[in-house]
Amino acid sequence: MERPRHQGMAKNTCMRWRLPLVCLLWEVAMIVLFGVFVRFNPESDAHWEEEKQKMNLTSDIENDFYFRYPSFQDVHVMIFVGFGFLMVFLKRYGFGAVGFNFLLAAFGIQWALLMQGWFHSFENGKILIGIENLINADFCVGSVCIAFGAILGKTSPIQLLVLTLFQVTLFAVNEYILLNLLHVKDAGGSMTIHTFGAYFGLMVTRILYRPNLEQSKDKQGSVYHSDLFAMIGTLYLWMYWPSFNSAISEHGDAQHRAAINTYCSLAACVLTTVAFSSMLQKKGKLDMVHIQNATLAGGVAVGTSAEMMLTPYGSLIVGFICGIVSTVGYVYLTPFLESRLHIQDTCGIHNLHAMPGLIGGIVGAITAAAATEDVYGTEGLIKAFDFTGQYATRTPSVQGGFQAAGIFVSLLMALAGGALVGAILKLPIWGDPADENCFEDDVYWEVPEDEESDVYRMHDPAKPASP
Amino acid sequence: MERPRHQGMAKNTCMRWRLPLVCLLWEVAMIVLFGVFVRFNPESDAHWEEEKQKMNLTSDIENDFYFRYPSFQDVHVMIFVGFGFLMVFLKRYGFGAVGFNFLLAAFGIQWALLMQGWFHSFENGKILIGIENLINADFCVGSVCIAFGAILGKTSPIQLLVLTLFQVTLFAVNEYILLNLLHVKDAGGSMTIHTFGAYFGLMVTRILYRPNLEQSKDKQGSVYHSDLFAMIGTLYLWMYWPSFNSAISEHGDAQHRAAINTYCSLAACVLTTVAFSSMLQKKGKLDMVHIQNATLAGGVAVGTSAEMMLTPYGSLIVGFICGIVSTVGYVYLTPFLESRLHIQDTCGIHNLHAMPGLIGGIVGAITAAAATEDVYGTEGLIKAFDFTGQYATRTPSVQGGFQAAGIFVSLLMALAGGALVGAILKLPIWGDPADENCFEDDVYWEVPEDEESDVYRMHDPAKPASP
Amino acid sequence: MERPRHQGMAKNTCMRWRLPLVCLLWEVAMIVLFGVFVRFNPESDAHWEEEKQKMNLTSDIENDFYFRYPSFQDVHVMIFVGFGFLMVFLKRYGFGAVGFNFLLAAFGIQWALLMQGWFHSFENGKILIGIENLINADFCVGSVCIAFGAILGKTSPIQLLVLTLFQVTLFAVNEYILLNLLHVKDAGGSMTIHTFGAYFGLMVTRILYRPNLEQSKDKQGSVYHSDLFAMIGTLYLWMYWPSFNSAISEHGDAQHRAAINTYCSLAACVLTTVAFSSMLQKKGKLDMVHIQNATLAGGVAVGTSAEMMLTPYGSLIVGFICGIVSTVGYVYLTPFLESRLHIQDTCGIHNLHAMPGLIGGIVGAITAAAATEDVYGTEGLIKAFDFTGQYATRTPSVQGGFQAAGIFVSLLMALAGGALVGAILKLPIWGDPADENCFEDDVYWEVPEDEESDVYRMHDPAKPASP
Predict the structure, then answer these.
(1) Alpha-carbon distance B189 to B196, whole Å?
(2) Is A48 in Cβ contact with C252 (below 8 Å)?
(3) pTM of the model
């Protein structure tokens, strides 16, 4: 079935020993590290009864689990079904899209629990985890799923695991710089997740540039049903994005507000996406690529500011702009990036995550800088930006400056990290596919071949199914 | 690819300027109106800390967000994935089903926030929104999705936006009459959402009657995989319906009870749907149309009464009846409505929403009229029907009468409104498809054509994909 | 279209009167039994206001609804979409997989509410139900869905309903023995749900052995898109499994901990599944069957111990082992069971539920036996294992012994029950399909035939769709 032509002969894509080795060794490493470091935090530990008394809590409902578990599950769906199925649009790469996304995310959340744990939940030599750590691990992996979108169809599963290992590491470092050193707010991750993940992925795909990729160009499109599968991914991302942006916000009004702002931004984004998708096509027909992707840009772009007093109409404006920017990006920028800058961006993450992520960082900086005691209340302002301890004297405008700095840090980390990791992935040992086998499940998956062709005979039982 | 025959030539279905214009102008209008009117309510505003002290709340968990957010997300899934994918059953209209549903719902929730806000959350010149408003906006849009089911495949996206604008407006008026003037209970919307939405849609499709629709009859069926996609919609509607009917019920027992009653009703409904689907077919085979739709009628029919003391066995009885009514409707009534009354009801919403909605209204009236202090407790009865203030002296039997009145008001509003909106949509300016192009994505979407045919060559790489 | 060969002629698969009769009679029985027995429990009854005062609760948020409803909805999705779509992988049995699963689960939850109610929620002659009963009913039905996996494609819908009736009954008895008589902990049901359900189903399929099943072997595979549909089932099971294992755990730390442990176990399981899937295939390619199924074994295997102090690294170890055991099972054990033991296990439930379920029981017994006051705290230990009342003096090691006993009881009940029910299902009155019609929707469903073939003409409108 596989038909090696040109240099394809030279590529050894057999995963039989390499992939199992990496999976097993790394998983053993996880077990050892978890054994040494990871324990339950007070809210998930069996000593909780005593803890409750210490914290003077009267009810189990005060356990953080009940504040965040529903949002956690929504985020979990976004990572595995949302990103997984969004990438199923390719006609022959459905197994790889949803299966490799599954693999890298399952590994990534473990490594993220450790990396983020060392930075944020380390106490007396132990990482103490609870529901918020699970959400953050999913978030971190979200940035890897984004980067995966840029190189979709062009990498081996081992490359994806290597990518995950490094990207999660750098993500945690970047997140630490932003949240702890710069004391920046970024609950929905416009900067830490989207800007970082997208530019990281774009740099990796730039380094891995394949000049002869047009050999598999015919496989780089969708078919009717693969577009419908992709809409499952789109809709779950769209519907649950309010949970994404509110999942780790402060209890109470902040979570509540983040959900409302995101809801509004996403709604507006759909309208302008449809408008520009139709406008930019000669016959005015809608393009599924835009509906599947650009409609989500509004969620990305309020990632930093959703928990702030962005207000519903502010959110509509952000969504309005991002639907346009993203759709225009798909039509004009993606081809330009590929032909001029040699950035082959399979899913167009530049339009869905990179630009809206930057916009999100800027909107966050402005919204923070514009905060006043009048709008937030005295207590509210302190709580919203955590102006306590060493930051007790920080003013909103200074906060805005730090927010802006966070954008640049994320961008730099992403580009430098992506260049490094791209160079590592370029080593000829990872079993990546030949150019003419890109976007093709056959390379790494047992594809039901005879059965596939059998569909054509479905109602012609005279012919035997397989000889 | 498009092949205009007969009068098809005359139809200009190009959306290039009309659709973008409507989307952009209306979205700008939304931004302006939100800017003038919409603000956060006390539970989502940054002043919540002060509010908590005023309301004497000790914990953030008392924020309405935690009572309703999980239900909100379930309702959100029902509107976008549930309705969207339920309508994907048509073999060539999957993009339109899920994509236009996405578009109209995204616009509709914004307009609903405003319309319902003016009626129910208007304070000092501002609409104050929180999680309950988002749920109500989704509910309102649900009635538009229902109406969309009747005209599925026969309208342009602009017509759908116009429909949404008017239907949301009338929905809000009707809801105001029922909930505020008649003081009727309708938490799951048997009357306000289903009866109103369905008869509205049926009237619209009656006005838009296409005598020559049989020209596209071959496209009005399903294919194997489109039926499986539709089952995704069905199951999400079925599973989350307990959330739908309980989402805006009173905190505590009412939400709890509404979920249980709905769960029971839906379970019974599946059994009778299967029974009659098999019984009414010559060879006793099951029909996917019934399984996809009639199984949901039990959820519709306890929409009004689920939060009342309907009791689990009462719910089973309602579900039992509705599975039968709905399935029989699909077999006998839908063809009758089309041939005799010229009501072309693509999805059979008469069987899934109209009749079960009416039954739901009646069950609600009876359940309310039968309420006693013995069953509800003194406090419980007052709380369940909100017999306070000017309604302090209303008795259950009077309440039952008002509930019944609510059915008729909804019916009248739907028929009158549907006639009006149908007439507007009949104007020859909206770019609706010719009869022979109905149920065909090609008209408004870029369909992956070459790729589609490429599937047939999937394992025959010798032939080039596209010339 | 159907082509009866050999003994196929003799089989009467017409469901026209039998299926409706069973559905209607049984549903009427449900209504009568619910009418006599089932009422709301204090938390879902309208007298809740008075109850709150009695229980000294200050807020509606203390209603069990808010502790468990989000988990309930996740479990609900697992039963209907998870199991339903996981079994859609067969190329021609998608309707049966998702549709029959829908039917049996809808009936099963009603019967389970009664059976489990009589054992666990019976007060003063009434079964008082609340959200926890709904979860338990879904759990019980989960074991039937598991058994369905073994006989998928080889039974009539009536057989499935008969199976459900008996299996739910025996499930409730077994559950009563374990939870009440042995006082065993099994929150996620490794023993009661998975071990019991799987061995029950395996015994049934053994009794129903079809020596000539290779006649329909060509239909027992998947096609490309059916594998993608199945991944929807897989992912929802995988993502929501933390909810499954924590849904009925004690409020607070136990629910919290169960979610974390399950999350960890599942993540590790993916890595070893991928490793062994690649390793055991000659060319090192991944097999979708393993990805769809073995990745879930980690969730099964922490079903008993997830709420205990298994710790995150303990969970990783369990997941690590189960991914291997399950994948190896698919490659070597399933063919062996079929050829030597005549156990035809369509979905390979032996690998996904039976073995991991046993492992789960053992892990639970060990974890319980290893519990100490040091790890759990004095109060925590009593609460975790409910060492109160007549069990106040039970020690962890004794508890471990009882846990182990629970495994054997479940196993025995499953094998004996499965043999009995298998014998009943073997009666020639249930309309099961002939060997050559197995795994074929055509037998019990109206399949869109002409439309299916029409796909091939999708862009060739010259040919008429149906003559």
Answers:
(1) 9
(2) yes
(3) 0.95
DSSP-derived letter for residue B438 is: T
Question: Do A385 and A371 meet the contact criterion of CB atoms below 8 Å apart?
Answer: yes
User: Does C453 contact A459 at a Cβ distance shorter than 8 Å?
Assistant: yes
**In B181-223, where do the E strands start and end?**
none
Q: What is the pLDDT along chain A (467 residues), one digit of tens a residue?
A: 444 444 444 578 889 899 999 999 999 999 999 999 999 999 999 999 998 999 889 899 999 999 999 999 999 999 999 999 999 999 999 999 999 999 999 999 999 999 999 999 999 999 999 999 999 999 999 999 999 999 999 999 999 999 999 999 999 999 999 999 999 999 999 999 999 999 999 999 999 999 999 888 889 999 999 999 999 999 999 999 999 999 999 999 999 999 999 999 999 999 999 999 999 998 999 999 999 999 999 999 999 999 999 999 999 999 999 999 999 999 999 999 999 999 999 999 999 999 999 999 999 999 999 999 999 999 999 999 999 999 999 999 999 999 999 999 999 999 999 999 999 999 999 999 999 999 999 999 999 964 444 443 333 333 333 33
Whether A409 and A183 have beta carbons less than 8 Å apart is answered as no
Phi, psi of A162, rounded to the nearest 5 degrees? -65, -45
The one-letter amino acid at B102? F
**CB of B341 closer than 8 Å to CB of B333:** no
CA dist B148 and A231 (Å) reads 19
Chain C adjacent subunits, 3+ CB pairs under 8 A? A, B
Coil, strand or helix: which one is B122? strand
Please list, residue by residue across A382-402, b when 16 or more beta carbons sit within 10 angstroms of its beta carbon and e when fewer do: bbbbebeeeeeebebeebbbb
Residue in chain C nearest A113 by alpha carbon:
C264
Contact yes or no for B23/A279 (Cβ under 8 A): no
- Across the interface, of A15, A80, A456, the residue whose CB is closest to C278 is A15
Hey, what are C201's tokens? 């189903």
| Closest C-alpha to B82, from B214, B223, B234, B253 | B234
Burial of B397 (0-12, 13-18, 19+ CB in 10 A): exposed
Residue contacts between A and C (CB atoms, under 8 Å): 243
Tokens describing residue C461? 């409108």
Residue C49 is nearest to which of B287, B380, B449, comparing CB atoms?
B380
In C, minimum Cα distance to A111 occurs at C267
Q: What angle is formed at CA B231 by the lines to CA A83 and CA B292, rounded to 5 degrees?
A: 155
CA distance C325 to C301: 11
- This complex has an ipTM of 0.94
Q: CB of C215 within 8 A of CB of A8? A: no
- Measure CB to CB from residue B235 to each of C44, C81, C447 and give the nearest one: C81
Among residues C299, C293, C301, the alpha carbon closest in space to that of C351 is found at C293
